[in-house]
Amino acid sequence: MADKKIMVAKSTKESAAKSDKSQKPAKKKDPGSRPSVKKYFRDLKGEFKKIIWPTKHTILRNTAATLAMCAVVGVFVTLFDVGLSAFIRLVSSINI
After folding, report:
1. Is 35 part of any domain?
2. pLDDT for 69
3. What residues have CB less than 8 Å from 73, skipping those under 6 apart?
4. Which residues contact 54 (CB under 8 A, 6 or more apart)?
5. How far apart are CA 65 and CA 74, in angstroms?
6. Number of compact structural domains in the chain
7. Average pLDDT of each block of 10 consecutive residues along the chain (96 residues)?
8. Could you tell me if residue 91 is inside a domain?
9. How is residue 54 annotated by DSSP?
10. Tell me, what's the pLDDT at 12?
11. Does the pTM of the predicted model rise above 0.85?
12. Could you list the residue range(s) of the whole structural domain that residue 74 is in?
């Protein structure tokens, strides 16, 4: 019986010691501290390596699609403007 109490006490002390070691004190951050400039540029270089730059063919295709859509929207706006102008002239010419 006494052996069991000693074993339980030892295991309790060991688990308490382990839990104390596993909890490290939090590092205090200095309120005025900033990340280092060196680390910033190192991270920036890593991010630039992840960029997938478009090919010349892709750029030309996307530019052509953009210009075509601009032309379509331009024609649509022009037709709408001409139609609205004609409608306003028609309404204003009616004498009531």
Report:
1. no
2. 98
3. none
4. 62
5. 14
6. 1
7. 57 56 62 76 93 95 98 98 96 84
8. yes
9. P
10. 57
11. no
12. 53-96
